[in-house]
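lol ok so funny story. i was supposed to be doing the assay writeup but got distracted and ended up predicting the structure for this chain instead. priorities right. anyway since i did it might as well share w the group, maybe its usefull for someone
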Amino acid sequence: MKTRAQFCSLIIGLLVTYASATVNVNAPSSGNTVGSPVHYSASASSDCAKGVASIGVYVDNQLIYVVNGKSLDTDLNIAAGDHRTVVEEWDFCGGASFTPVAITVTNQSGVWVSSPAQQGVNSPVNYVATSTTGCSKGVASMGIYVNNQLSYVGQGAKVNTSLTLPPGNYDTVVQAWDYCGGSTYKHVPVNVAGNAFTNLQASGGWTAYGEFPPKYDICVKCGPGVTWTMQQGVGSPSLSGKATKFSIAGTTPYADVLWTNPLIGDFSSQGVPDKGHKIIPNLHNFTYDLYFYSSNLGLSEVLEFDINQYFNSMGFTWGHQCRIAGGNEFDVWDNVNWKWIPTGVPCNPVNNSWNHLTLQVQRTWDNKLLYHSITLNGKTTVIDRYFPPFGVGTWYGVTANYQMDGNYKQSPYSVYVDNFSLIYW
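and the output, tada:
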C-alpha cells in the first residue's frame, strides 16, 4: 500500500510528465566555482496551455528565491562552500520541473566565469562573471580583454555584458582590479561561429537554370541542350548522411547549370525576409564553405561557387570558378566588366575523395567587393583583390549559388555536395 507521501509524489510525477516542462539554466554552470553573490539566469517552458507560473532557486533544499513568470535573472548571496542548488519551475496546470546546479562558492581572491561556459559560441558573446578579493575595500572594477585589447570595463565585482566578435578563435581574459591595487584574472578561450546557414545542400529553396553559350542567358525549360537533376538526402557518399547529388548532361557543348538559393531578404527560403531592411545593409563578411566529391571530375569544364548581395540598387557577386578541364586554376568574377579574372591559384580537386573548399569575401566600408582568400583541401591562398559593384534594380537579398559547366562534348557527370554552409556577419 502506498503512503500518502508516495501517492502525492506519484501524482506530482504524473503532472510533471504531462506538462513536459523544461528548465534551461544559463548561469551558473553546474560544477563551477563562483564568487558570492552568485548570478542566476534561467528560463522555463511548459506544454501546459496556461504556461509557466513561477520559477525559483533552492539552495541545499531551501527555497531562497522565487519570482512570477517563466524566467529569472538575479544575484544571490550564498555562503562559501559546496552547495546543491536547484532551479525549479511551476506551471499553471500543477506541474513542476527542475534542473540541478552544483556549485562551489569561494571567498578566495579570484575571477569566476559562468559564461561563456564552452568555447564554441555565437556572436554577440555573453560574458557573466564575478570576482572576490581579500582586500577589505572590495573589488573596484572588472574588464574583458580580447586578444590583449581591453574591450570592456565596468564598476564593481560582477560583469554581465555581451561583446560582438567576428567568427574566429580568440584568447579572451576576464580581469578584476581591487581597491588595494591588486588584480586577478581568468583566461577564457572562445571560438566564435557567427551567424550561419548550415547544411544548405539539404535545404529547400533551390532553383535551377540552364545556360547556353555564348551569352549564357538563363533558361528554365531548356530542351535537350542542357539537362540536370538534383537528388537530396543521399546517404553515401556522404559526410553528414544527407549529401546532395548534382548532375548535368545534354547535347549542347559548354552548356551550364546554375543552382541558386535566396537565403536572406526577398523570397528567403530560410525564414529571414528582412522586411525592415535592418540585416542586409549591415552585412560585410561572408564565408562560403562546402565539401564536394566526384568520381569523374575530369569531365567538368568548371565548378562555380558564388555569393550574392543586393541592396540600395547595388549588386555584389563574389563569383569563384575552379577551372578543371578548363585549366586547373581559380578565377574570380569582375562584376562591372562581366568577365573572369585568373588568380594564379591552382585548383586541383581530387577524384573519389571529399574536397573541402572555403572562400572568404568582404564588402568593404566604401562598398567594394574584396576577394580575400581561397582554401582548398587545407591550403590557403590570400587573394585580396578589389572590384566595384554593379547596378541592380529593386532586388533585395543575399543568395548562394552552385554551378556546374559542361565540357566540349557536354559529357554527363555528377558531383556530391555536403556540409554546405554560409557564415555571415
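The chain has three domains: 4-105, 110-193, 196-424. The radius of gyration is 28 Å.
back to the writeup now i swear
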